[in-house]
Amino acid sequence: MSDNPGPGSPYQNPPSAPVRRVARSLFYVWLAAIVGVVVVCSTVFCLNVFMPMSGNKKAPLVDVAIPRGATVSDIAGILKDKGLIRSTHGFTLWCTLNHLNSKMVAGVYLLSPHMPPGQIAQLIALGNQDTSLVTIPEGFTARQIGARLAAHGIGTQSAFLQLASTQGLTFATPGFHPPGKNLEGYLFPDTYRFPYGTTDREAIAQMLDNFTHRIDLESPGLSRRPADLSRVVTMASLVEREAQVDADRPLIAGVFYHRLRINMPLDCDATIQYALPEHKARLLFKDLKVESPYNTYVHHGLPPTPIANPGLPSLNAALHPAATQALYYVAGPTGRHIFTNTLAQHDKVIASLKKTL
Fold it and tell me: Using 50, 70 and 90 to split pLDDT, how confident is the model at 214?
């Protein structure tokens, strides 16, 4: 049998090399065209899906609430409805590719249409919520704190005061249990960043947690006995409301401890102010007779609870009072107090100050 193909054989007259080269070139041209189309389509898709909704850096911010248990698809729908993303599928795809599906944090977020979807996803995954910056000054009472929080849109004053004054025992933070139902004195004054939508209970819990981190509960003056902690915080609250400069705080604490040792009434004007329905610019003699367990002109010893929320300087003064024989003090024209050992000396100082008015 001959090895040469006969007439009509399919193997007769194979394509020449130039023809094969042309075919190969056409294949690569078509392949390049297809790849180019895919690249262009992908680019257009990415630009459309992953670009921000607005190029305006000053576009109005939008509050977005992400509920607990919301899936990435749920979140994408919320963002689309708010006009913050172009595509729910694109947002979901971005989260999946970046392993964020299980990391989304519920809360309220302040977002901009100028943010790319990826940035929005990362903010929600990091829990960077819309916050309100609130400063609680040293010496504020629970009532004053509640009013300030309410002014920043956090809870209501009445609900805050009800929780802080009657529900103290329902709060607990690691290493600290409030010594009583009234949390006055333990709401640590500081500047707080509260997420939008923070409740009264959450705000109180954050202040108590701050108290435990700022106060050394293992200090020799603060044993684990609630009575010791309560005594120091109550004393610090009196110092906080009486002192005007830090240098006087240990001395005022020393005067109060001295009075306690000799069973002398504390005669602390700040406790009268706490007992009165409204703060007065100047106390009258009749005010000193108000019927209240906080009236230290009538009742011996410390008041039943702190009368304000003291800062660190007053707490340190209550823990480390000055050694003094003084029993009296009065504010001088500069804000510093003048301390005396006897009532006669005290009266003389007051008479002298009145002549300078």
Answer: confident
Residues 99 and 69 in one domain: yes
Instruction: Assign 111 to helix, strand or coil.
Output: strand
Task: Note whether 68 and 125 are same-domain residues.
Answer: yes
If you count DSSP H runs as helices and E runs as strands, how many of each does the chain have, helices first? Answer: 12, 6
- DSSP class of 131: E
Residues 269 and 346 in one domain: yes
pLDDT value at position 207?
95
- In single-letter form, the type of residue at position 199 comes to T
Please state the pTM of the whole predicted model. 0.69
**Distances, alpha carbon 318 to alpha carbons 97, 174, 221, 239, 311, in Å:** 57, 24, 9, 8, 11
Give the list of residues 6+ apart from residue 67 with CB closer than 8 angstroms, or none.
74, 106
Which value, to the nearest 10 degrees, does the dihedral of the CA atoms of residues 194, 315, 294, 175 take?
60
d(CA 313, CA 177): 23
Helix (H, G, I), strand (E, B) or coil at 108: strand
Contact 229, 217 (CB under 8 A): yes
